[in-house]
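Postdoc handover notes: sequence design on the structure in folder B. Input tokens:
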């Protein structure tokens, strides 16, 4: 059975917290079991002020511990006398009719057998007297002589204390730890479930949005307001939906514009042929050039569409070879001068003698021809076109500036769109299908170049093309 992401996240958090809790309980149990007896022993040892004082006095008197090594009984006498509690005070005399009270007796000395668990070691840690088994105990108390430790009083653990007091204390602590552990498990369950729902709620929304996008509803957007990775994912999904919606709208507009551009010359051509067939119009010297003109318009439109399709697929033909861009521009401008003169337009080129670079001469010729043809069609008679070319660092910059009319400022971002025309001044009546700048940008992109448009200082359109001399751009 496959688990959902919610179940996997819940189990991961719960098992992790459970494992941590188990380790904590084991470590705490081990620490209590091994540390409590040492704690009790150190607590007992801290109460032996009298014994420590007597040992310090002995060391001050003898200047060493050798007397305990020579006389083992001296150690036992000192310990027994130091640990013996003072006798109880005698009870008061009996009341009337009573005899004299009996003197009281103190409790038996050293009932916990502490003397058998004590040992003395010198300042260097060497055994002096007492129970040797106490040497491994960490419970120690310094015997000071002149402020410097002259030895250490060491106490071994008490088996009786470990069995009685330890057992009760450890039992209580284990019970408390189990209660804390149970509360932690319940908290882990609630926290893991809450975290799973918190993190996966936007994921479910994004999944629902993806299903709606797949069904064709491109207007869907994810209403996820977060500042973490899921919020960034939602923003990316919304951006993707917007891009898909824009692309779909462009595709529909592209199909409609293409059909419209093809329909116009085809309708005219069909009407001309039907008129000739029905005898309404007779063929003369102007008929066939006119028909060939419509066929040529269709051919150019289809070729432009083909070039754009290849550019979109990244397969636009491009073969780089050494060339002189200045000579190429000069040749193109010389071919256009008569056509510009027919419309009373001035055409000038400002370029150095040589601009060597790597590029596709045929594609660059197509690029500059499109720009010159656009300017010739749309510039008012009496105007001019100024072309400048220069080298700038590792690039070659080519600028086209023509005179009025200028496209509106708000239309500049759309001039590279396919079939886009500025109807106010550059209408279909002037010719062209509105694909020239789109193809020009595709050619510049194939050369790893950059192309931009702006308002010209001459009153028309300014086009700037930047090409790398080596055909590459970092």
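Designed sequence:
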């Amino acid at each position: 059975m496959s688990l959902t992401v919610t179940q996997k996240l819940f189990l991961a958090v719960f098992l992790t917290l459970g494992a941590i809790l188990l380790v904590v309980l084991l470590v705490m149990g081990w620490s209590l079991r091994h540390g409590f007896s040492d704690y009790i022993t150190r607590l007992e040892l801290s109460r032996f002020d009298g014994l420590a004082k007597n040992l310090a006095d002995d060391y001050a008197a003898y200047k060493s511990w050798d007397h305990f090594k020579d006389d083992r009984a001296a150690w036992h006498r000192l310990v027994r006398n130091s640990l013996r509690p003072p006798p109880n005070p005698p009870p008061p005399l009996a009341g009337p009719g009573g005899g004299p009270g009996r003197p009281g007796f103190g409790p038996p000395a050293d009932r916990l057998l502490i003397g058998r668990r004590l040992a003395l070691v010198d300042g260097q840690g060497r055994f002096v007297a007492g129970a040797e088994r106490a040497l491994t105990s960490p419970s120690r108390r310094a015997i000071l002589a002149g402020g410097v430790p002259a030895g250490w009083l060491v106490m071994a653990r008490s088996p009786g204390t470990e069995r009685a007091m330890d057992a009760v204390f450890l039992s209580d602590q284990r019970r408390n730890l189990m209660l804390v552990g149970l509360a932690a498990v319940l908290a882990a369950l609630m926290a893991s479930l809450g975290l799973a729902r918190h993190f996966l709620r936007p994921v479910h929304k994004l999944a629902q949005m993806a299903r709606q996008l797949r069904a064709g509803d491109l207007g869907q957007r994810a209403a996820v307001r977060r500042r973490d990775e899921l919020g960034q994912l939602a923003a990316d999904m919304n951006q993707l939906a917007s891009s898909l919606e824009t692309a779909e709208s462009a595709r529909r507009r592209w199909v409609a514009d293409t059909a419209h551009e093809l329909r116009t010359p085809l309708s005219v051509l069909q009407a001309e042929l039907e008129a000739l067939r029905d005898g309404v119009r007779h063929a003369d010297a102007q008929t066939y050039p006119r028909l060939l003109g419509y066929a040529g318009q269709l051919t150019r439109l289809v070729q432009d569409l083909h070039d754009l399709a290849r550019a979109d697929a990244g397969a636009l033909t491009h073969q780089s070879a050494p060339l002189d861009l200045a000579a190429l521009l000069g040749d193109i401008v010389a071919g256009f001068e008569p056509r510009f003169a027919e419309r009373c337009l001035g055409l000038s080129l400002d370029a150095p003698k040589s601009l060597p670079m790597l590029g596709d001469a045929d594609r660059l010729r197509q690029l500059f021809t499109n720009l010159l043809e656009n300017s010739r069609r749309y510039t008012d008679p009496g105007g001019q076109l100024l072309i400048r070319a220069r080298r700038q660092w590792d690039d070659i910059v080519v600028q086209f500036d023509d005179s009025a009319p200028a496209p509106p400022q708000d239309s500049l971002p759309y001039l590279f769109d396919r079939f886009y025309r500025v109807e106010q001044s550059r209408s279909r009546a002037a010719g062209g299908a509105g694909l020239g700048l789109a193809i020009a940008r595709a050619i510049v992109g194939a050369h790893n170049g950059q192309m931009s448009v702006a308002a010209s200082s001459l009153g028309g359109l300014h086009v700037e093309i930047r090409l790398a001399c080596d055909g590459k751009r970092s």
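Context for whoever picks this up: Confidence is low (pLDDT under 50) at residues 93-109, 424-431. Don't rerun without checking with the PI first.
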